[in-house]
C-alpha cells in the first residue's frame, strides 16, 4: 500500500523503522519538525528519539510549526533531550521544564518563526522530520493535516526524514497551497485577495537527495478536546454576536462580516457556533486553525470558505471530515504559517480576529502568555500576528476564575504581549468594551464598567481614581500596580478580603 | 504669483484670510490637518483658530499625520480648544494638558491612524486643513514637505481648507507618490518592491466642490534642532556600525545593507552619519522621515534613494535642499503614511529599523512612550509599524541619564509599546545585545552584561538571580519589578545608595 504514496520509487528503499531513524540524531543538532496545533506532527520518530535517550544522551534545539500532539513534547522534555524549543508548545511536562529553566523556550510570533531559518540567523537545520501524505515523483512532499513551517524546514534542512502517515486518506491531496515569498532581496508579493485565493502548489518542493529516511506510520492526530459551551462562554459569545449585529446595523459590516480568525478553545468555538443561528451568511475564515465549529458552519451552509495552516478537530469531527473529505475540500485550504499569518494578507483582507487573553489591564494591554508575570502557559502563538494587523482585534476572557480568586481584569497586566495600541475590543461574560478611538482614561472607565467582575469593580475604580489624582496619560500607582498578583501569590486570591 | 499655484481658476475666488477661515470651525467638530514630523503642517489656520478662542470658545477633536510645528499644538492646547488629539504630538504645552487629563490623547501606530476614518469608526471629518504646494486644474492637491494622512483626510472631509504655502518652491512638484489601497472589500495590493518604486500619482485627488477656502501663507516648516554628536551617541553609532560590518562578514547582509528606517533624533543621525566613512555603498532608506543625515549621505554618494512621508531638516539643510531641489528629487519620494509605514511593504523589503527607547527591560521589552509608566512623552509614532515587521528591529538608548540617576535598563519596563517578541537588538553606549533566537533568561544575561550602566549592573544581576530562584520563563520579583521607578519618584534617583 505504501507504494502509491512514494511515487519516487527509488525512495521506497529508504524505509526504516522509527528506532533506526532515531539513531540519525546527534548531540547539539538543530531539529525541525512538522506539526501545528497538534496536527500533522511527527508521530513516530520524535517519540523514538525520546525513548532512545538512555542509550543515546543528547541535547537538541527543536523547532516546529506550533504545538505537537501525542505528548511528544513532554516525552522529549522528560527524557532531557531539549536544550531549546521554539516557537510554541502546549505540553504540561514541557511547560514545567521551561518554567524551571531546564529548557530554553523562545516564544515567537508564529507568522515570523520561519524567518530565523530563512535568513540564516539560525545558520543550519540538521534534520527535518516531516509528516507526509505522500511523496510525489519529483520528490515533493505532500503534507497531511497541517502545513506549518514544513516548507521552510524542508528547504533549509541538510537531511529530511519523512513520516508517511498511512491513516490520512489520499483524498486530502489538493487541499494544500504551498507558496514561498522567497528571501530578500527577491521577496515576492503574496497575491492573496480573498480567503480562497489559491496562489501556490499542492506539494512542498524538496531535493530528493536530502530525504535520508522514510518511516511509515498509521497514527491519527491527537484529537482536540471537546469544549462544551458553559454559561460564561455562551455569555461572551452572545455579547460578541450582538456587537456584530450592531455593526451590521451601523453599516460598518455586511452580513458576511469580514474574514474571521479565531484562536483555539471554548470561547472561539462558542462564538463560531453562534453564527449558525444568527443572521449571518456567506462567512469566510482566514485563520491559523480550522476547528469543529468551522465544519459545523460549512455543514449549516453558513461558512463559504476557510483558510488556515491546520485542521485540529475532535475525534468525532475527524472521522466525519476525513471519511468524506471530497465534500469539504472545495471549502478549505491549508497554507504555510508565514502565509496564513502574514501581516500583508491580514491587513489587506480586513480580518476580524478573536483571541483569548490570560488577563487584560484597565488600559487595554493584554497578557497572552504568562501566569503571574513569570510562568509560561503556551506562548503568544499567532495572536499578535492577527491582532496587530486585523481590522478588528478582539480579546476574550472570563472576568474571574478560581472561585472568584483571580480577576482577569487587573490594574496592570503582569506581562504584555498585545499592547494597548493593538487591542480594539475586550469581552468578558459581563459585557463588551469597544476601545476604538478612545484615550486610556476613557478605556479604563469602559473596561471596568463593562468587563470586570462585580467583586473587583470597586477596587479597580478606586485604583483608577487614586491613580488619576497623580496624573498621566496612563495613570498608575506603581507600588500597587502589580500588587494583585503578589496578593494572589501570598494568599491564593486577588481579593482583599477573603469571602468565606 | 498665487495664480500659477491655483490652476483651477474658479477656486481663486475662495482665497480668504486665516482669521476668516477660523470662523468656519464649530464646537464638537472633528478636524483633520496635514503635518508629519513638523513638516507640511498648517501654518496659519490652526493658529488663527487658537487665537479666536476667547471670541469663539469651542472643543474639537484634532487628527493629524503626526507632530505639528510652530507650537501650534501648544497654542491650541493652551487655548482650551482640544477635546481629543490623535495620533502623535511632541509639544511640551500639549503634553502637560495630556498628562493632567485635560486633553484626551489617543496614541496610535502612525501607519494605522487613517484607518479609523477610512473605516468610518470615526464617522465623519468636518474640516480638513491641508497645506499645499498648488492645486491642479482638476482640483487635486499637491502636498508640500510631507504627505502624512492628507489623502485620507481629503477623501473623508466634508470641507477642505487649503493653505497654499508660497515659500515652497514649485520644483517640489513630482516628489510625491499618492497611492490609496482603497477600503475593504476592494483593498489593493501595495506593489512596492523596492524603496524607489513609484506606484501612484503626484497629487491627492479631491472633489473641488469640497474646497471651501484657500489661505495663502509663506512660512517655512519649523526647523529640526541640530543634534551634534556627543560621546554617547557616537559610541552607540560605533557599536551599530561594527555590528553591521560583522553581519556583512558573516554573509547575512550586503554592503548596501537593506533598506534603512530610522527614528528622529541624535542617535539616528549619528548612526546614519557614520555610514559616510564606513565600507557601505548604495544604501537605501524606507522610512517615515528624511532628515539632514540622509541628504548628507546623498551628497556623499552613499545613499541611492530615500522613501518617507516627510522631510524634516535643520534650517541650513532646508535652505540647501530646497534651493536646489532638482538635484535631490531623483533620490527621494514622499508617500502617504499608511504606505511609508505599511506592514506589507516593511516585511517585503526586509527593513533594518532603528528607533529610540525610553527604557528597555532585561527581557527585551521596550517602553517608547511613557515616563515612569504614567506620563506621556510623545507617542509610539511609527516605531512599532517598523519594529513589528522589520527584518532587524533595533532599539537604542543611553544606559543611564540624569547624572546616573535613571537607568534605562530596568528590571521591568513600566510601560510596554514594543514587546520582547518584536525586539531584535538593543544598543547603549556600553554595547550591543543581539537577542535573535534567545530565550528570556539568555536575553537578560546579555542585556545586563552588554548594555546596562556599570552603576546598575550588580543590582540588575541580583534581581535576575533572585528572580530565577522563583522560576519562570520570564523570572520576576513582582513586588520589586517596578520599585526602581517608585524609588525615582521618591528619591529623584533609581540608585539605592545616592553617590555624592
Automatic annotation (TrEMBL), chains A, B:
GO terms for molecular function: acetate CoA-transferase activity; acetyl-CoA hydrolase activity. Residues 8-215 form the Acetyl-CoA hydrolase/transferase N-terminal domain. Residues 320-463 form the Acetyl-CoA hydrolase/transferase C-terminal domain. Keywords: Transferase. One of its GO terms (biological process) is acetate metabolic process. CoA binds at residues 263-267, 358, 378, 382, 402. SUPFAM superfamilies: NagB/RpiA/CoA transferase-like. The keyword Transferase applies. The active site is at 288 (5-glutamyl coenzyme a thioester intermediate). InterPro entries: AcetylCoA_hyd_C, AcetylCoA_hyd_C_sf, ActCoA_hydro, ActCoA_hydro_N, NagB/RpiA_transferase-like, Succinate_CoA_transferase. Gene3D superfamilies: 4-hydroxybutyrate coenzyme like domains, Acetyl-CoA hydrolase/transferase C-terminal domain, Glutaconate Coenzyme A-transferase. The keyword Transferase applies. PANTHER family: ACETYL-COA HYDROLASE. Belongs to the acetyl-CoA hydrolase/transferase family. This is Propionyl-CoA--succinate CoA transferase. It comes from Chitinophaga flava. The lineage of its organism: Bacteria, Pseudomonadati, Bacteroidota, Chitinophagia, Chitinophagales.
Amino acid at each position: 500500500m505504501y507504494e502509491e504514496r512514494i511515487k519516487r520509487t527509488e525512495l521506497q528503499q529508504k524505509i526504516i523503522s522509527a528506532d533506526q531513524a532515531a539513531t540519525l540524531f546527534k548531540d547539539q543538532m538543530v531539529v525541525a519538525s512538522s506539526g501545528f496545533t497538534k496536527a500533522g506532527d511527527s508521530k513516530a520518530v520524535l517519540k523514538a528519539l525520546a525513548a532512545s535517550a538512555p542509550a543515546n544522551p543528547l541535547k537538541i534545539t527543536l523547532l516546529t510549526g506550533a504545538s505537537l500532539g501525542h505528548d511528544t513534547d513532554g516525552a522529549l522534555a522528560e527524557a532531557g533531550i531539549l536544550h531549546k524549543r521554539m516557537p510554541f508548545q502546549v505540553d504540561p511536562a514541557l511547560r514545567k521544564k521551561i518554567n524551571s529553566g531546564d529548557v530554553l523556550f523562545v516564544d515567537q510570533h508564529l507568522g515570523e518563526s520561519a524567518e530565523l531559518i530563512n535568513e540564516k540567523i539560525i545558520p543550519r537545520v540538521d534534520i527535518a522530520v516531516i509528516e507526509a501524505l505522500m511523496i510525489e515523483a519529483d520528490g515533493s512532499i505532500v503534507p497531511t493535516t497541517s502545513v506549518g513551517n514544513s516548507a521552510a524546514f524542508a528547504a533549509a534542512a541538510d537531511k529530511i526524514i519523512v513520516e508517511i502517515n498511512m491513516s490520512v486518506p489520499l483524498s486530502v491531496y489538493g487541499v494544500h497551497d504551498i507558496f514561498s515569498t522567497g528571501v530578500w532581496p527577491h521577496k515576492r508579493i503574496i497575491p492573496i485577495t480573498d480567503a480562497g485565493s489559491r496562489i501556490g502548489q499542492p506539494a512542498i518542493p524538496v531535493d530528493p537527495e536530502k530525504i535520508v529516511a522514510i518511516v511509515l506510520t498509521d497514527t491519527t492526530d491527537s484529537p482536540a478536546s471537546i469544549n462544551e459551551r458553559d454559561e460564561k462562554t455562551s455569555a461572551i459569545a452572545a455579547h460578541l454576536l450582538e456587537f456584530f449585529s450592531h455593526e451590521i446595523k451601523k453599516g460598518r459590516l455586511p452580513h458576511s462580516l469580514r474574514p474571521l480568525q479565531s484562536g483555539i478553545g471554548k470561547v472561539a468555538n462558542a462564538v463560531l457556533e453562534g453564527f449558525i443561528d444568527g443572521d449571518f451568511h456567506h462567512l469566510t475564515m482566514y485563520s491559523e486553525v480550522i476547528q469543529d465549529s468551522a465544519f459545523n458552519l460549512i455543514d449549516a451552509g453558513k461558512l463559504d470558505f476557510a483558510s488556515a495552516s491546520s485542521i485540529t478537530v475532535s475525534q468525532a469531527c475527524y472521522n466525519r471530515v476525513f471519511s468524506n473529505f471530497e465534500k469539504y475540500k472545495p471549502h478549505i485550504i491549508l497554507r504555510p504559517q508565514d502565509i496564513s499569518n502574514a501581516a500583508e494578507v491580514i491587513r489587506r483582507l480586513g480580518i476580524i480576529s478573536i483571541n483569548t487573553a490570560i488577563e487584560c489591564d484597565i488600559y487595554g494591554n493584554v497578557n497572552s502568555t504568562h501566569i503571574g508575570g513569570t510562568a509560561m502557559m503556551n506562548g503568544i502563538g499567532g495572536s499578535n500576528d492577527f491582532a496587530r494587523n486585523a481590522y478588528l482585534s478582539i480579546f476574550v476572557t472570563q472576568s474571574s476564575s478560581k472561585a472568584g480568586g483571580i480577576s482577569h481584569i487587573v490594574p496592570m497586566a503582569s506581562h504584555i504581549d498585545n499592547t494597548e495600541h493593538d487591542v480594539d475590543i475586550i469581552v468578558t461574560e459581563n459585557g463588551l468594551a469597544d476601545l476604538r478611538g478612545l484615550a486610556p482614561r476613557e478605556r479604563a472607565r469602559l473596561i471596568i464598567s463593562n468587563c470586570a467582575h462585580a467583586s473587583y469593580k470597586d477596587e479597580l475604580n478606586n485604583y483608577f481614581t487614586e491613580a488619576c489624582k497623580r496624573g498621566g496619560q496612563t495613570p498608575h500607582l506603581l507600588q500597587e500596580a502589580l500588587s494583585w498578583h503578589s496578593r494572589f501569590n501570598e494568599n491564593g486570591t486577588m481579593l482583599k478580603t477573603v469571602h468565606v
